[in-house]
TrEMBL record:
Pfam family, one: adh_short
Highest taxon above the source species: Bacteria
Protein name in UniProt: Oxidoreductase
Source species of the chain: Streptomyces albiflavescens
SUPFAM superfamilies from the UniProt entry: NAD(P)-binding Rossmann-fold domains
InterPro entries documented for this protein: NAD(P)-bd_dom_sf, SDR_fam
Length: 221
């Protein structure tokens, strides 16, 4: 069986996607900064019959991300699905007039250098398999910039452009690249924005394989 690597695997959406894809037979590589938390989540999933392993990496340090993806491939097998969904840091979300050039370094590392490093690392394996899926998950500011969240708005726009370029470039090779926009907050119990519902939406994006951008809910909701 092949592997889904979830970059930014926490207790919310990350765990729900691990359960959804794991339930379909994927092995799951859980990647976040804290080894202990990812290992604990992997143990919880193992108790549910899902093969999962935790790997520590900081997406702002591409070398750690590349090493984690290599370790995941060596431990679990080829990565067929890559999901990039770390939760952006609070200090990226400052008003536009209070955002300096230096303040943009973090958001750009997080939302541009991180995804590019991750994609470059897994793409040779996907091309060798002749199939793959790359999923980007972003908030609504990727589509409508928010003046109070300048860092994420600017960096998400760049991440979206990168994803869209990949979509257009890789479709002919059987590698589907998609972006899910989640407007507003993830809300447990919500009809469209409960983590398990969002995980199901991401599973369907992986299955259906057309179009780049999808919305989990209406913008502004
Ligand atoms: N939560 C919301 O209301 C909301 C709203 C709209 C969109 N989204 C999108 O949903 C996704 C996140 O889902 P979630 O909020 O449910 O989170 P989650 O899957 O519960 O956890 C995300 C994980 O990202 C990890 N992370 C943060 N910074 C990182 C870094 N520098 N390097 C590696 N990992 C890092 C954190 O773990 P460590 O601290 O251990 O690194 C965190 O546990 C993101 O794509 C986000 O843009 C969320």
């Amino acid at each position: 069986m092949t592997t889904i690597a979830i970059i930014g695997a926490g207790p919310g959406l990350g765990a729900a996607v691990a359960r959804r894809f794991g339930g379909e037979g994927f092995d799951v590589a859980l990647i976040a900064r804290t080894q202990e938390r990812t290992s604990r989540l992997a143990a919880d999933l193992a108790a549910e019959g899902i093969t999962a392993r935790g790997f520590a990496a900081d997406v702002r340090d591409p070398k750690t991300l590349e090493a984690a993806l290599d370790a995941a491939t060596a431990t679990l097998g080829p990565i067929e699905v890559l999901q990039y969904s770390p939760l952006p840091h609070q200090d990226f979300m400052r008003p536009v007039l209070e955002t300096s050039a230096a303040d943009l370094a973090g958001p750009i590392e997080f939302s541009v250098y991180g995804p590019v490093a991750a994609v470059q690392q897994v793409l040779p394996g996907m091309r060798a398999m002749g199939r793959g899926t790359i999923l980007f998950v972003n908030g609504g500011s990727a589509v409508v910039p928010d003046r109070d969240r300048a860092g994420t708005s600017i960096a998400f726009a760049a991440e979206s452009a990168y994803g869209h370029l990949l979509h257009d470039t890789l479709a002919a090779e059987g590698i589907h690249v998609a972006q899910l926009i989640i407007p507003g907050e993830i809300v447990p119990g919500h009809a469209r924005k409960d983590p398990a519902v969002l995980a199901d939406t991401l599973w369907r994006l992986h299955q259906d394989r057309h179009g780049f951008r999808s919305f989990a809910d209406d913008l502004g909701s």
